[in-house]
Please model this.
Amino acid sequence: MEKSSKLSKVTLYQNIGFLVIISLGFIDELTRLSSLVFRDQAFTWEFRKSTLGMLLVLGVWFLVSTSTRRILDRLRYLENFMRVCAWCHHIDHKGQWMPMEEFLRQGFDTPTTHGICPQCLAQQKAAIEKARQSAANREENVVGEARPK
Model:
């Protein structure tokens, strides 16, 4: 629920930003702010030009909000995946690693992806270190046998 509210805040801030841009455009046209800033004495309000500018902003708003909505939908979809340890098949559910059998017994129906639990990570690191040490020992034995006595 918290993630969903954070994602909806993104669209809220985006929409507020575009509304501010449109409001500033209207305020500029109504108060002739640009003629005051640029000291243009011959200011005339061009309805077509201001309407075209607002339509451009609305078009960009539509494109950005559509792409943002698609990205957020994809993010929500990916956040629903559960992590599964590739070695022992324990499942990370709400911060706790549980055996897959227990997880399936509880009747969850959710997509899965792979990860590695802390215990398997430690086992794999130990196995890699042991393999490195035995390879180094074999190299020392080969070098020691090659020396003349």
User: Anything to note?
Assistant: Strands lie at 82-85, 90-93, 96-99, 112-115. The chain is about 70% helix and 10% strand. Residues 82-146 form one domain. Residues 47-79 form the longest helix (33 residues).
